[in-house]
Specification:
The protein is α/β, with parallel strands linked by helices and 506 residues long.
Length: 506
């Protein structure tokens, strides 16, 4: 029968000692977990293994001996290692030896209590203990309800991963401990978390409690009735900066929560949110340092006013073109002049407003630049809101044109039903038949003719301002797309996939 020995690659350079692990009789396999170095006291080793077995519920025992002699193999060491089989009494007793700098190992078994000792074929399988421990290929620890697995479960490879996963207590021995037993395993150079990390973990508890208290206070203020009044509630719902701040507030509440992640999905979500928030703040600080260097905010403020004037002049030229014969189209001159002068007056008001605010533009940009320390996404949302404010007159033009166009379309559809002898029943929400007299038909014909001949002029203004509004929406949409990309991109999972893909295995 073939004997399979799973040997951790981290123990290949360990000093001579004994092999401890788990024997899986259903598979005729041995899972080596660690190497106990010389010198040691057998009684203390047995006590230590019984304590580990009580905590982990895994039948950990001494499986054999390990010899790593840099010189020629001594006869006394070989006899001593064979004698250890009588002290710990495990059948079969596995002997693995490595001589000098040779790449070839020798692996054999001893069966002293067997009447018919047979030579077994031994397969030595190397495995990375760290990757097996961190890859989560084993079943969750909370789902294991019994210490003894069934024969069909033990025959699977998951029994090997489960053995390594449950032996976490065995790997927690720090190299600074002066205990009587010295082990070699994947954390033999010390527990994975260093002393500084452990101190940071201890300090993070009060920090998270303080952050949770502040966040709960802020969220309580945000949910208060003060923000439900009309002006504040309107601004909170329309400004993308407020929406992003609320989104980041939820992320901070997830990170600072003192509840331990129950599943791997929750743990990965917390890690992704934390890395996303960290990178967002780092990019925001870089943007803020770039803005406040070489007086770039002053140059930006000096450029903003001429840019607004240039946009206003382009809009005035566009309106002058619409008030003439755009593309050779013959418009209704009276309505064309009224609409053109109406929109030109709005542009005049907008230019006056911009020049009135020009002395304060640099100070406003200076304080807005400080918001970049909250993250690049907050700065981008503020940029989107600034674009919305600077193009507010274009939004007004679009609303005016859309409302006027919709009113004419609604009037034409109502008058068209009048010609067909029908009307809209408001109570039953349907079209019913109706008889009209001659005066109603005459007035309806006049109104229909007027609205029909005025429709091209209104439609042209509506089309032009809709295209301008669409251009602004596309720019804001690209900004919000970048914000959503930073918020929702699983950066931690991507980095983990590129650097340590075994952490995402299974």
């Amino acid at each position: 029968m073939v004997l399979k020995v799973f040997f951790p690659s981290c123990c290949s350079s360990a000093e001579s000692g004994i092999l401890i692990g788990r024997w899986i009789s259903e598979q005729n396999s041995a899972v080596i977990l660690a190497v106990v170095h010389f010198p040691f006291i057998p009684v203390q080793v047995k006590q230590y293994l019984s304590e580990v077995q009580r905590v982990t519920k895994v039948s950990v025992s001494v499986l054999g001996s390990w010899s790593n002699s840099k010189q020629e193999k001594e006869e006394s060491l070989s006899e001593f290692l064979e004698d250890l089989g009588t002290i710990f009494s495990h059948e079969p007793w596995i002997q693995i030896s490595k001589e000098g700098g040779s790449k070839f190992w020798s692996c054999s078994t001893l069966q002293k209590h067997s009447n018919n000792p047979k030579e077994e074929e031994i397969i030595l399988i190397y495995y990375d203990q760290r990757k097996v421990m961190l890859s989560h290929l084993h079943p969750p620890l909370d789902t294991a309800t019994s210490t003894d697995r069934k024969a069909d479960d033990a025959s699977k490879l998951s029994a090997i991963f489960d053995t390594v996963a449950k032996s976490k207590v065995l790997f927690m021995t720090d190299r600074y401990d002066d205990g009587p037993i010295k082990l070699t395993h994947w954390q033999s150079d010390g527990v994975e978390a260093s002393i500084i990390v452990e101190l940071m973990k201890q300090a993070s508890v009060p920090a998270c409690m303080l952050l949770t208290f502040l966040l709960s206070l802020i969220s309580g203020v945000c949910r208060s009735r003060v923000l439900k009044f009309w002006p504040l509630s309107f601004l909170w719902s329309k400004l993308s900066t407020c929406e992003q701040l609320g989104h980041r507030l939820q992320h901070l509440q997830v990170i600072s929560s003192n509840k331990k992640a129950q599943t791997q999905t929750q743990l990965m979500r917390k890690a992704n949110v934390f890395v996303s928030l960290l990178i967002d703040v780092a990019l925001g600080i870089l943007l803020m340092s770039w803005l406040y260097r070489k007086n770039r905010i002053g140059h930006l403020a000096d450029t903003l006013i001429p840019m607004a004037d240039h946009i206003a002049e382009e809009l005035q030229d566009l309106l002058q073109w619409l008030m003439g014969a755009p593309a050779g189209l013959k418009m209704n001159r009276a309505l064309d002049q009224v609409l053109g002068r109406f929109f030109l007056y709005h542009i005049h008001l907008w230019i006056s407003y911009i020049h009135l605010m020009s002395p304060f533009i640099e100070m406003i940009l200076w304080y807005v630049g400080l918001s970049a320390c909250l993250g690049l996404t907050v700065a981008l949302c503020i940029l989107s809101d600034i674009i919305a404010l600077l193009t507010f007159h274009i939004y007004c033009f679009y609303v005016y044109g859309a409302r006027l166009y919709c009113l004419k379309i609604y009037g034409l559809s109502s008058l068209w039903r009048l010609f067909r002898g029908k009307k809209w029943n408001v109570l039953r929400q349907r079209v019913d038949s109706c008889s009209y007299d001659l005066d109603q038909l005459f007035i309806g014909t006049l109104l229909f003719t007027i609205l029909l001949f005025l429709l091209p002029t209104t439609a042209l203004y509506y089309l032009v301002f809709t295209l301008l509004r669409l251009l602004v929406v596309i720019v804001q949409g690209l900004i919000h797309l970048l914000v959503d990309l930073i918020d929702s991109l699983p950066l931690y999972s991507i980095i983990l996939r590129l650097c340590r893909s075994y952490r995402l295995a299974g």
